[in-house]
Specification:
The complex is a heterodimer of chains A (241) and B (304).
Chain A: E1 6-15, E2 18-28, E3 33-38, H1 44-51, E4 59-64, E5 67-68, H2 73-79, E6 80-84, H3 95-105, H4 110-124, H5 139-150, E7 157-161, H6 169-184, E8 188-192, H7 196-199, E9 204-209, E10 212-217, H8 219-225, H9 231-240
Parallel strand pairs in A: 3-8, 3-9, 6-7, 7-8
Antiparallel strand pairs in A: 1-2, 1-4, 4-5, 9-10
Chain B: E1 2-13, E2 16-27, E3 31-35, H1 42-49, E4 57-62, E5 65-66, H2 71-77, E6 78-81, H3 93-103, H4 112-122, H5 135-147, E7 153-157, H6 165-179, E8 184-189, E9 200-205, E10 208-213, H7 215-220, E11 226-230, H8 234-243, E12 247-253, E13 256-261, H9 268-278, E14 285-288, H10 293-303
Parallel strand pairs in B: 3-8, 3-9, 6-7, 7-8
Antiparallel strand pairs in B: 1-2, 1-4, 4-5, 9-10, 11-13, 11-14, 12-13
Helix pairs in contact in B: 3-5, 4-5
The chains are: A alpha/beta (241), B alpha/beta (304).
């Protein structure tokens, strides 16, 4: 079997007496779209923060892109991309300025940033708007741009934290086209979402309940396992307990 | 009788036209869904109806009262739950509820029957500060506070956003029970799949209605043949289906791709299968399917 790009074993985070993430163990493989689901407060964000090197685990093992999260969190940050709907681009910078800023943050050379900028603008057909403030762009464009910017440094893994809530159905499809394309090129995408229909787009899904992973499989297998018509029903059955 | 009548409402912010000559009405006792993505104009419309902002053009009446001229009267008979959590975070559940009851000159006891179903779930935590509640509990408390003065018309701005599917489902169950008290409900949501839970819906996009009807009629208005298709590689599948002769559009829908054809074809399933086979797809499945509200929304935005 292929080497996993994300590997955890008994990964745990406690805050005082509260165990937010309780011994989770799973692997994610190259090119996989992996859905990370759970109710509000189930521990998804805490787990995601540990995997992206932002929060030190209390115990257990986590390796991301071949790097130990506990020992080398800074190395992890260099090798991953991150995008969320709540925060992604600077609204009072232009498209070009945002790309240049993130290129700088990721330590890309000026010439590389320049080349990446033109590639990205062509692909997203944003040529006419490159010097426009991000604030003035429609939400859907902003999100497609944000995803591309999160992959500027060609990370092997991208974390998407509720990337498409509130976007119109057509734009959301176009956004998922980008996700599929990235996965096709071998990028691993880990997605959190409240939308169960989006969960269906994932290759495999993990469901967190009270800090633990209670189920992990393909959407099809999960529906079989829980004798459910839809992922929504799987979620309800699991979260209600 | 119409509980809400919206006539030619227009609202702009600078160059941005948030609402563009919008006209529709909601019947008394109806559960009406205003469905559209962020930026469609949902919040602007709800704020106008809640008498909080004034339209540039057009008019709106609720229970025969004008939202601009009669705003004082309307505020007594309206329940409004804004999209952003707007209760007092430093007050407890109980204190918030008592506060809103007293503002409207009533008491929790007077209208307890309206909120009972919802409030029993909050009661064990009634001393907890609102700021310390989970998303789902906040929504339930906000709904209780919007109901405590027994409004005739309830306006809910995206009550399901940021709430997990379990709480969202419970919330819609509550709305159905509220209908039994004769309350007219206008609820906005970006989730197309929630259309089915409403009596009638308006699909809002860029300040205009794409459709206004019952969910069933909207679904039945889809006038092109639609197929759900699956193979082992979704990315290639969607790309290939878009290239297929006779294809109108193709988008991911859950575990399937939805393929719309320009015109009906005899033996379409076989044609599609053969086409995919020639492109080296495996584990294929093709089946005619009925359009959902989301298919209709996408089709109308494509037509624009």
């Amino acid at each position: 079997m292929e080497e996993p790009v994300i590997f955890t074993e008994n990964l745990t985070k406690t805050f005082g007496r509260f165990t937010a993430v309780n011994k989770i163990s799973f692997s994610v493989y190259p090119g996989e779209i992996f859905g990370f689901l759970g109710a509000n407060g189930a521990g998804k964000t805490t787990a995601l923060r540990m995997l992206s090197g932002l929060l030190k685990p209390s115990s257990g093992i986590a390796q991301v892109a071949g790097v130990d999260v506990m020992r080398q969190p800074e190395q992890v940050k260099r090798r991953i991309g991150y995008m969320s709907q709540k925060f992604s681009l600077y609204e009072d910078l232009t498209i070009r300025e945002n790309i240049r800023f993130y290129g700088g943050v990721y330590g890309l050379k000026r010439a590389v940033v320049k080349q990446k900028t033109s590639e990205l603008i062509d692909k997203l057909e944003l040529g006419a708007h490159v010097d426009q403030l991000v604030r003035s762009l429609p939400l859907g464009w902003r999100q497609k741009l944000a995803l591309s910017v999160a992959m500027l440094h060609e990370p092997r893994i991208v974390f998407l934290d509720e990337p498409t809530s509130g976007v119109d159905p057509l734009t959301r499809r176009q956004f998922w086209d980008l996700i599929y394309e990235a996965a096709h090129q071998g990028v691993t995408l880990m997605v959190t979402t409240h939308y169960m229909e989006e969960a269906e787009y994932c290759k495999r899904i993990s469901m967190m309940v009270d800090g633990k992973i209670e189920a992990l499989d393909t959407p099809g297998q999960l529906k079989k396992q829980f004798n459910a018509e839809s992922m929504d029903e799987v979620f309800r059955k699991l979260a209600r307990g | 009788m119409q509980a809400i009548e919206v006539q030619q409402i227009t609202k702009s912010y600078g160059d941005l036209k948030a609402l563009d000559e919008l006209t529709f009405s909601v019947a008394s006792g109806e559960l009406f869904g205003l469905i559209g993505p962020d930026g469609a104009g949902k919040t602007s419309l709800l704020r106008i109806l809640a008498t909080l902002i004034v339209p540039d053009k057009g008019s709106a009446r609720i229970q025969q009262h004008d939202v601009v001229g009669d705003y004082k009267y309307l505020r007594n008979i309206l329940g409004y739950m804004p999209g952003r959590f707007s209760l007092y975070q430093d007050l407890s559940i109980e204190e918030n509820l008592a506060f809103f009851a007293s503002v409207f000159g009533t008491s929790i006891a007077d209208n307890y029957h309206l909120i009972q179903d919802i409030y029993v779930q909050l009661e064990p935590f009634r001393k907890r500060r609102a700021g310390a509640l989970s998303g789902g509990m906040k929504q339930k408390l906000a709904l209780c506070c919007a109901l405590i003065h027994k409004p005739e018309v309830l306006l809910l701005d995206e009550p399901g956003t940021g709430v997990d599917p379990v709480s969202r489902k419970e919330f819609w169950d509550m709305l159905k029970r509220l209908k039994e008290w004769g309350i007219t409900i206008l609820v906005s949501t970006p989730n197309m799949d929630e259309a089915e839970l409403c009596d009638r819906v308006g699909l809002l996009h860029k300040g205009k209605l794409l459709a206004l009807d019952t969910p069933a009629n909207i679904r039945n208005s889809y006038d092109k043949p639609l197929y759900e298709v699956r193979s082992q590689d979704m990315y290639r599948l969607i790309g290939d289906l878009r290239q297929m002769p006779g294809a109108y559009s193709c988008y991911a829908f859950g575990e399937y791709a939805h393929l719309t054809l320009l015109h009906p074809i005899d033996g379409a399933e076989i044609t599609i299968l053969q086409y995919l086979e020639s492109r080296q797809h495996r584990d294929m499945e093709v089946r005619a399917t009925r359009a959902g509200v989301e298919d209709c929304f996408i089709a109308s935005t494509l037509d624009q």
